[in-house]
Write a structure and sequence with these properties.
Helix content is about 90%, strand content about 0%. The chain is mostly helical. The longest helix is centred in the middle third of the chain and has 60 residues, at about 5-60. It starts with a helix and ends with a helix.
Amino acid sequence: MDNSQNLSYKAGQARGQAQEKGNQMMDRAANAAQSAKESLQEAGQQMQAKAQGAADAVKNATGLNK
């Protein structure tokens, strides 16, 4: 293998490694985004449940729930 073939081979290897690292970073970003979405959904559901509980407590306290 002459020098130009060796350099070409090494450049191809470096390109492949860079692509793999880029794919890994994209996967990590997608996983982080999915995790954040799920956390926000859970927080929203908890807030909704608390708001409903507060509304029910007000209705019970004022006699509107009868």
